[in-house]
């Protein structure tokens, strides 16, 4: 419970900070001059040569099913230094294999539950999806749900994770007799009574003999959405209210919500909806090899929708496939038709996907899922925060973040007045080494980097410096940053910025 209070405090701080940031998407328009850093004259560490793993040992909580207990039993463990994706996978593995005793029941009961597939754990932003093996289907609905609650509560003990989806062999599992009641995304429930949680879930079922189309449903849903210019897909969580529980109603509700996310990102409600360019309502059928197929038929007007949404058909299909298969129980494939012609191949910036028989499956698009990081560019000589899609396993990696800064704003961002915060000649090779000591990040940069700062000039030196400090501090969970140039510290380079010592990342600097 202590870690959950701390997490809530961090969330509150983030919410308080949000209005002070500006962004390339929907971040409020408040800009600021770079503020002075606090620095210390000397540091006791040598400059890194090459990259080490950036992070610290982490304390996490396991939430285990007890023998005869109505609540989960917490156990504190220490996790090794690792990137977030590997940290999550390790935590899941430890939970699944935790030794039993007089208090702790085996995870999954008498069944041996394993992870499934080549990528059994996905992490994008604060959303984690865990894919379990088919042995989990042998559990009763109540036992399966309570096992998933323990898994979600365990993962949500990490500050970075807020929502958890649990799949079995790439499919969502239905929690009623007909296999149609979605579990949806789960959050942490560290102190709650498990039977009570199950009763609340069970109450959402369509009563026997009643019309499912007349039974409303409210659920937490992970929505995957297409990124601008076909860069892939991202995801976010929302509570959705469905007017009924038939597969067609649920699918239409999900398609509407994907459009709502895209409208919010672009910043206008005057965008066409997917339902408005569909020839028929979504059709659900059974596949001979098992699982369900959702068929979506669109008119040619979908081309205008894609232009308005600033994306492409491949990224849209990827987002829809991931959303439907993650939430709708038993759905293992999605078929797309445009003017009654089935799509069998999709090409986008992340790659090409060919679907035998036009059946697009979740695992075909896992590599299309991106994470996002906040990077700082410049506008009118001031810092500006931008949400930047990135490889989801590298969003907390200092080298990847600095490389994003070096790449500068996109064409769309430049059209909005964005300017590079770093000289254009800088390249990833100018980062000689990165390491961490406790909560201090050590960055060793090249002599060319130092010369570029000098040539960039004193007028732009502060923006360059603080674009790095804010970007690294915001995304890497490090509170101190120390710069070296060719293995040594420099005091002054282009102007008044004192580069020696440590810079203390302080999110309060973003407040006016």
Beta-strand residue percentage: 15-25%
Helix content: 25-40%
Distance between the termini: 33 Å
Major sheet strand order:
1-17-18-19-20
Structural class: alpha+beta
Describe this structure in words.
The protein is α+β, with helices and mostly antiparallel strands and 512 residues long. It has a domain at 28-54 and 390-510. The protein has helices spanning 2-17, 84-96, 141-155, 194-202, 247-266, 302-309, 313-327, 398-407, 411-415, 447-456, 458-476, and strands at 50-51, 58-64, 73-79, 121-124, 127-132, 163-168, 217-226, 233-242, 283-286, 292-298, 331-338, 341-342, 345-348, 351-354, 370-379, 382-391, 431-437, 440-445, 480-485, 503-504. The protein has a 5-stranded mixed beta sheet with strand order 1-17-18-19-20. The protein is globular and about 75 Å long. The protein starts with a helix and ends in an 8-residue tail after the last strand. Residues 1-32 have low confidence and may be disordered.
What's this, in brief?
This protein is of the alpha+beta class.
Task: Note the topology.
Elements: H1 2-17, E1 50-51, E2 58-64, E3 73-79, H2 84-96, E4 121-124, E5 127-132, H3 141-155, E6 163-168, H4 194-202, E7 217-226, E8 233-242, H5 247-266, E9 283-286, E10 292-298, H6 302-309, H7 313-327, E11 331-338, E12 341-342, E13 345-348, E14 351-354, E15 370-379, E16 382-391, H8 398-407, H9 411-415, E17 431-437, E18 440-445, H10 447-456, H11 458-476, E19 480-485, E20 503-504
Parallel strand pairs: 1-17, 5-6, 10-11, 18-19
Antiparallel strand pairs: 2-3, 4-5, 7-8, 9-10, 11-12, 13-14, 15-16, 17-18, 19-20
């Amino acid at each position: 419970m202590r870690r959950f209070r701390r997490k809530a405090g961090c969330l509150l701080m983030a919410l308080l900070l949000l209005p002070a940031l500006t962004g390339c998407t929907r971040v409020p328009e408040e800009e600021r001059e770079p503020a002075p850093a606090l620095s210390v004259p000397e540091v006791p560490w040598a400059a890194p040569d090459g990259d080490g793993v950036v992070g610290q040992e982490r304390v996490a909580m396991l939430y285990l099913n007890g023998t005869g207990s109505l609540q989960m039993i917490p156990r504190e463990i220490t996790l090794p230094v690792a990137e977030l994706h590997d940290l999550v996978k390790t935590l899941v593995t430890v939970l699944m294999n935790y030794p039993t005793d007089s208090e702790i029941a085996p995870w999954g009961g008498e069944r041996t539950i394993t992870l499934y597939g080549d990528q059994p754990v996905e992490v994008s932003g604060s959303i984690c999806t865990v894919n379990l093996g088919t042995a989990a289907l042998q559990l009763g609905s109540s036992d399966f749900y309570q096992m998933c609650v323990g898994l979600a509560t365990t993962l949500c003990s990490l500050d970075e994770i807020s929502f958890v989806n649990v799949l079995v062999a790439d499919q969502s599992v239905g929690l009623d007799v007909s296999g149609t009641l979605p579990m949806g995304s789960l959050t942490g429930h560290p102190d709650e009574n498990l039977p009570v949680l199950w009763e609340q879930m069970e109450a959402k079922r369509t009563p026997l003999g009643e019309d499912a189309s007349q039974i409303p449903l409210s659920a937490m849903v992970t929505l995957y959405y297409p990124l601008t210019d076909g860069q892939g897909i991202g995801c976010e969580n929302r509570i959705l209210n469905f007017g009924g529980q038939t597969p067609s109603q649920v699918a239409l509700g999900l398609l509407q919500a994907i459009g709502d996310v895209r409208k919010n990102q672009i910043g206008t409600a005057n965008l066409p909806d997917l339902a408005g360019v569909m020839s028929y309502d979504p059709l659900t059928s059974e596949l001979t090899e098992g699982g369900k197929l959702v068929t979506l038929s669109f008119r040619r007007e979908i081309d205008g929708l894609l232009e308005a949404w600033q994306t492409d058909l491949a990224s849209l299909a990827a987002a829809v496939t991931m959303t439907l298969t993650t939430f709708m129980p038993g759905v293992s494939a999605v078929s797309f038709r445009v003017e009654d012609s089935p799509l069998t191949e999709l090409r986008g910036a992340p790659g090409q996907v060919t679907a035998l028989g036009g059946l697009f499956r979740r695992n075909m698009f896992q590599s299309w899922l991106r994470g996002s990081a906040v990077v700082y560019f410049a506008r009118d000589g001031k810092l500006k925060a931008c949400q930047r899609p990135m490889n989801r396993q590298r969003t907390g990696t200092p080298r990847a973040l600095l490389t994003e800064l070096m790449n500068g704003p996109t064409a769309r961002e430049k059209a909005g007045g964005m300017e590079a915060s770093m000289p254009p000649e800088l390249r990833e090779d100018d980062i000689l080494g990165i390491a961490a000591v406790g909560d201090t990040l050590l960055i060793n940069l090249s002599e060319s980097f130092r010369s570029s700062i000098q040539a960039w000039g004193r007028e732009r030196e502060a923006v360059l410096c603080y674009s790095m400090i804010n970007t690294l501090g915001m995304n890497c969970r490090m509170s101190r940053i120390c710069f070296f140039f060719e293995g040594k510290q420099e005091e002054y380079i282009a102007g008044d910025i004192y580069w020696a010592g440590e810079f203390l990342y302080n999110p309060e600097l973003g407040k006016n």
